[in-house]
Amino acid sequence: MLRYTLSRLPTAVLTCLVASLGIFWLVQLLPGSPVAMVLGEQATPEAVAALEAEAGLDRPLVVQYFDWIGGLLTGDLGVSYVSRVPIGDLIGPAVGATLELALASLLLTILMGFALGITGVVARRRPAAVAYRLFSALGFGVPEYVVGVMLVFVFAVTLRVLPAGGRTPILEDPGAGFQQLLLPAIALSVHSAVVVGRFLETALNQQLDEEYLDTARAKGASRRRVLWRHALPNALPSVVTVIGLRIGHLLGGVVVIETIFAWPGLGTVLVNAVSARDYLLVQDLVLISVVVFIAVQVASDLAHAALDPRVRLEV
Fold first, then answer.
1. With bands split at pLDDT 50, 70 and 90, how would you rate the model's confidence at 36?
2. 158 contact partners, CB below 8 Å, separation of at least 6
3. Which residues contact 54 (CB under 8 A, 6 or more apart)?
4. pLDDT in tens, 162-207
5. CA within 13 Å, CB half, 283
6. Domains by residue range for the chain, with CATH
7. Rounded to whole angstroms, how far apart are CA atoms 235 and 200?
8. Nearest-angstrom CA–CA distance, 288 and 291
């Protein structure tokens, strides 16, 4: 397992490096000086030059890149061009909010995904199967922001049983925090749950058609035991990989869902940074998102290898 882990690390590090170069290059292609945009059209060239020198934007691009990467590696995210506040202080409070929403959405994705996948296998030609197909079609085809708006309209505007937005840390007030967390977590997880459910259904059906399960049936094993004891454990490795990929989708959907529900997380900070043209803050947030996504993929690959020894033996 250690050998497999070490074999995955160089690729992950190289991918992060290439992503950082691409992000830095794309930001440099944006028209105009970010400092000039912050100061406004009436700013004098002297004022622009002074602030560029203070921010280090007058140095060669190679030096700027290595200063940026070096700062990130040491925990120094730089100073916002707009607010002149350390970026770490800006995103620090938002990390907990996004982590809370992402973990709740991931939990719902796994629970709903497994429930949907197993329902698709055991409820063939039953009313439950019809409901499963209908929910899967809607969940797969309707965008997350539409799901979010529909949830707000039904549960916050019409029924008035849940709040339409805002956040109370769930550890401070579990009741209010759970109510405010429920709608955005559902909106963010529905599409991913359907994907996980469909993939699990396919994987289970493939396992149920394998010859080794004919032996289990011949020995008198019930359908439930065949499903839970034999088919599900063998279907898990590939499903874990899909869940890892869906975590990346959840991270991407956070931006839209946090905006809809006024959730004060990293997605909201990113939207505000783009609106204010705070390019260094945008640069930091995008790279952090890429690094987290790559780390999640490596973790899912390691989990896959832990569940399926054949994967790590190929290295």
1. low
2. none
3. none
4. 998 889 888 888 899 999 999 999 999 999 999 999 999 888 988 8
5. 28
6. 93-312 (1.10.3720.10)
7. 7
8. 5
